[in-house]
Amino acid sequence: HDVQAKDLELLKRLGEGAAGTVRLVYHKPSGLTMAKKSISTDPDPAVQRQILRELAFLKTCNSPYIVSFYGAFLDEGETTVSLCMEYCEGGSLQDIYTRARDRGGVIGEAVLARIAESVCKGLVYLHSKRVIHRDIKPSNILVTRKGDIKLCDFGVSGELINSVAETFTGTQYYMAPERIKGNAYAVQSDIWSLGLSLIEVSQNEPALPPPGHPDLSIFELLDFIVRQPVPVIQGDHISDVCKNFVAIW
Ligand code: ATP
Ligand code: MG
């Protein structure tokens, strides 16, 4: 049955993004623990109905490489759309590499290979349903308790994307050059973002802005992405096979 606000018990806050807040909730009727993401949207009821209609597509997504969707509804005085999804106890790859960095460690190549495999399989699945993810980055790649790696936060609702009016901060660094240039873009743009995500996880910091250019303005950065050679994965601990995998796409 449908997930409703009144059936949820708030457990704790899991994280915060540019678009909203993610909380751990308990769904009393099913006994499931879920992650609830709440996003402030356009207050127009017609727009909100459209967003909920578009999000219903997520119910048809069924893959071990995609975070399961339980339902969406209007929340908090009808100005917020909340989306309930599978709770991934391991957190995001961003959480995981940040913890590794804080302990002075780094994620090794065997794990990078598993990430690449899982993300590619998730993308094959989405692309077979004619969905471009549009927001592949370490914080949108989640890890379950068992260690399975899954994609979340893909762009199924054009109306939601419009409603959340991209603030030009941080998240755009994963955009492929063809998107920055305003050209037609397609599934290949997700592969660009996968490459940047693998570089980021392996070096414990974002691939862009590029090393040695920490203070680029957003305009300089976008110009850099479009003009400069593609970022590559570096380090003596990384094999040539892995370097080539990231470089050739
Ligand atoms: P941005 O707003 O730039 O996209 P983000 O992806 O980190 O950044 P959110 O999607 O709001 O923002 O997620 C915030 C944090 O909540 C994530 O970094 C992750 O730690 C946590 N989180 C999100 N979804 C889940 C989930 N299904 N299970 C467990 N933790 C989650
Ligand atoms: Mg996210």
TrEMBL record:
GO molecular-function term, one example from the UniProt record: ATP binding
Domain of life from the UniProt record: Eukaryota
Listed GO biological process terms: MAPK cascade
Key words of the record: ATP-binding, Kinase, Nucleotide-binding, Serine/threonine-protein kinase, Transferase
Ranges for domain Protein kinase: 8-249
Protein name in the entry: Protein kinase domain-containing protein
Species of origin: Absidia glauca
Gene: ABSGL_15092.1 scaffold 15162
